[in-house]
Design goal:
It is built from two helices and seven strands; from the N terminus they run E-E-E-E-E-E-E-H-H. The chain has 174 residues and is α+β, with helices and mostly antiparallel strands. The chain has a four-stranded antiparallel sheet. A three-stranded antiparallel sheet has the order 1-2-3, with no helix packed on it. Helix 1 crosses helix 2.
């Protein structure tokens, strides 16, 4: 960058930018919060006596919405169900959110941060909320295994690209 009075020329962008302008890419968490939490213990107190090992089913969903050009809300939804032979022991539904700020990123970088990196950052906090909720419902604390959100994101991108490439290809042999 060359100083031309109060205007600096950004050599990577090829044009003048105001002195002190922030042109570097930046992304991060502004704040995070529990948006919704539901804990159900439908068969209490009977479920505390069940001896069969429960099946734990965990489902994730990631959503996002833009609030401004530089701020978005990312929502990590987690549903945990514990079922045994006698019925459902507990259900925990959590919507854990964050406001994320992103500046000077291209669309691909914004998408990757929103759907891979932000959930990775949020997960340990959501995991703790779920562990505390299960314990408060009267069951042993449940610690969810770490999730590779980046790996899942890359798999979904690859699957979408395959579907996009396959859409114009012939369905059979000619």
């Amino acid at each position: 960058m060359a100083d031309e009075g109060n205007i600096i020329t950004d050599l990577t962008q090829g044009g003048p930018v105001p002195n002190g302008a922030d042109t570097l890419p930046a992304a991060g968490i502004i704040s995070q919060y529990v948006k919704d939490l539901s804990v159900e213990n439908p068969n209490a107190p009977d479920s505390f006596q069940w001896q069969d090992p429960p099946q734990i089913d965990v489902q994730f969903n990631i959503g996002a919405r833009n609030l401004t050009d530089e701020v978005a809300e990312v929502e990590l939804k987690v549903e945990v169900r514990s079922k045994g032979q006698a019925g459902t022991a507990f259900i925990v539904d959590l919507s854990y959110c964050a406001l994320i700020g992103m500046r000077n990123l291209d669309d691909g970088q914004k998408h990757a941060f929103t759907y891979a990196e932000a959930p990775r950052i949020l997960f340990p906090f959501a995991r703790q909320v779920i562990a505390d909720a299960v314990r408060a419902a009267g069951f042993p604390q449940l610690l969810l295994e770490p999730v590779d959100f980046n790996g899942i994101y890359l798999q979904q991108l690859a699957a979408q690209q395959e579907q996009g490439e396959g859409a114009g290809a012939p369905a059979g042999e000619a």
